[in-house]
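Side project, low priority. Logging it here so it doesn't get lost.
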Amino acid sequence: MNNHKRYLILLEFKRNNPKPKTELIFSSTFELLISVILSAQTTDNQVNKATRKLYSIANTPNQILDLGIEKIKYHIKNVGLSNIKSQYLIKTSKILVNKHKGLVPNTRKKLMNLPGVGRKTANIILNIAFKKNTIAVDTHVFRVVNRINFVSGKNVFIVEKKLVQLIPIEFKFYAHSWFVLHGRYICLKRNPKCNICIIFKFCEFSKKINYLN
């Protein structure tokens, strides 16, 4: 795919949804961090159901520690991998209290030192909470950009590097959200909705014609 076509795809995303927002519900950077940790292999809707109750009683590192792991497990029991994630929440909260004065750090390196936080999660926090032009590559982003040939790469790190290099600065801030939403609702893993796709004419998916009906 050439740069002109990439530009037209991003422009179409911007016209359709100028300022996309995450579907996770949060009211602080710490809440966002916890929600993103919980969202691994789980839908945002499931996370929001769990955090609605959790945040009403514990939404700071100290309160999470005071709540304890068993009560955290109870509140997030419907979230995938709840046992390991409850440990992440305790360990992360402890590090934030002991090393960061209870505040969420604003660098990728420090974020990735927190249990349950990988590069994708760190990039999401940097983008949403700290307004950085990072591009997090999750399963939706990885699938969509490879499928439509926006960029190609065998792993998420290669794809992220290419996206950062090729996406113009004017589109970088919202790029992750556009591709996530497109993958979540239109460019599905199975049976993509090509008949209502706003970037159909620019997409280079070789089998897209099969999904028009």
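Brief comment: The mean pLDDT is 95.
Revisit when time allows.
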